[in-house]
Amino acid sequence: MVPIVPPSDEDLTRRAQSGETGALGLLLARHQASMRAVALSLLGSGSDVDDVMQEAALLALRRIGDVREPTAVGAWLRAVVRNASRMRLRATRETPGLDGLDHLPLRDHAPWQPSQPSQPEMVIEQHAMRDWIWGAMEQLPPQLRLVLILRHFSGITAYQEIADVCEVPVGTVRSRLHQAREKLAQALLASAEQAHGDASALTEDSRDEAVATLVASERGHLPREISELWPKETEMVGVLGRPGEHVHPVPVLRRVLEKGVRQHLSHVVASRSITVWEMDVTNPVGIADPCPPRLAWLMFRSNRRVERLRVVFPRPVL
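^ that's the sequence the OP posted. Answer follows.
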């Protein structure tokens, strides 16, 4: 039997540019872990990461035709997330378009970007996948569809203007936009499973590993199949590590457990080289130095074995 060779990034990008939505969905699923790692590194663990990932998926849908170097599409996707994250960090006022992403000078970071950004409505009208996005929008409830059309495809883009049109508070507009973008992004990623099961299988395997690791850690002993993934060369970096020292993650995590802190898996995304486990955290009553309520493990792997672990905490509220 001839082994099935997964399509390359270049092949998937060209197929996506020709209008194959499933190819774009697979690209996003394949690079989701590294994209999420970028967002987590800049934003910390929290709801902003989900928003940025949704925005990035929609922007990729509209701008995939702009990619000039299909072999470097992974870097392009990470640049989209990086710029979206930075916009969210420094935003002090509302901007039109997809929360200002259409006006980012992405070509400064990625030379395959076009010389001028395209307006959303022009991209949709010219893009081969316009039937998909409009078809997906038609599946949204009318209230969600309306705010999405106003925000991204009309001249009525400010939240207050949309609120006036819809006769609802600004907070409701923001909530509806979040729901609408989430549903569209989910529809896009769902097409990856229709095209290929590789990415979803990796994530499910990683979820099983995360659960087994947490359970075994609380029992005080990692089974062989788990400990083999955390060799003695594994290094912990970041705020929990010791600068200038090689620190293995297991003793550090054991100390956290001994304080009574417990982690509960909330989200997993995985690629062959990067894994992200997001956790909700509970602290014992009266603990002197409580852990933040959310954190994320960013693992960098080679042949499944963890080479480095960085624990990311939420940004402090200013």
